[in-house]
Fold:
Amino acid sequence: MSRELEMRASKIFKKQQGEILWPYGLATPNRRRSGLSEEQYEKAAAHARVAQQVIVEWAEDHGLRSSESGCCPRWLLRNASRQCEPDACGMYGSAPRDDASWLDHPIFWLKDGLPTAITSSPYSVSEDDRSRIEQWQESGLMAAFGGPGWYGSGTTQIVMWHPQRLASVYLAEDAGMLLRHSE
Structure:
């Protein structure tokens, strides 16, 4: 990863022991521990580099940084970044987990310190998922679907956001497609 991208990413994602804590699936694989052939490793590392660039540019364009405390769309309706109580959360805890399937590979985003957006990358979106997302839209949230975004691997990107904190959102580029065009 270039030093410039690392500096930009460190403003969006936390660091631990000097390393960017990339969202699941976006870290560059460790060559020695990956068990991948040289060719597989080079392909995976190239995809990770492009996906990292895509997510950093997307977050910068929207003025967002990641949050560790997000949990479900109820979080977006809060005026502070704190997790839901387990019995009221649509993703975690003992409550009905109505949002768990479409919130696969979620990233929770803050703008100006406020819960602002959630991105997810589910492998499929069922009619029940669409109905649940529509219920959240009735609460005043906005949502958009399309393309695999930065995660790829056969997933669909979903972005849900609070429209008073973020006027508009564009879906991220398909990192896999960008990589294929650069070869």
Q: What stands out?
A: The two ends are 18 Å apart (CA to CA). The helical segments are 3-10, 31-34, 38-62, 73-76, 127-138, 175-182.
